[in-house]
Write a structure and sequence with these properties.
This protein is mostly helical. The protein folds into two domains: about 70 residues, Arc Repressor Mutant, subunit A; about 50 residues. About 15% of the residues are buried.
Length: about 120
């Protein structure tokens, strides 16, 4: 199941770099949950041809991620944003308690986090 989620994410990021036939096959298999037999029938090719196409496409997608790292960056940025949101919550509490210096420190941390995202 986790592999399927990873491949779907790879398709979202890099799917357009595949040939139209590869992208179509991958979408039928991973997004539409069709079997190899159903895809083979739809495309007029053998089940083995579908299997080979999927394996070749998976390799291309994984190679793209290894070279470009867009998904890794997306996940890293998402973690940084979650961290910034946590600081916002602590700022809110600090302001309610009139701990202004603490709020300023947290705002500096948010600025640092957002700068990292922008500068990457």
């Amino acid at each position: 199941m986790e592999k399927n989620i990873e491949i779907c994410l790879l398709l979202d990021f890099y799917g357009q770099l595949l040939t139209s036939r590869q992208e179509e096959t991958m979408n039928m298999y991973y997004n539409n949950d069709l079997s190899l037999g159903e895809i083979a029938e739809n495309l007029g090719i053998t089940r083995q041809g579908v299997h080979d196409n999927i394996k070749r496409s998976e390799k291309i997608l994984l190679d793209m991620e290894n070279k470009l790292g867009l998904i890794k960056r997306f996940r890293d940025d998402k973690m940084k944003i979650k961290s910034a949101v946590g600081y916002i919550d602590t700022i809110d509490m600090a302001l309610k308690e009139r701990r202004y210096e603490s709020a300023r420190k947290d705002m500096k941390q948010i600025k640092k986090i957002l700068s990292e995202i922008i500068d990457d």
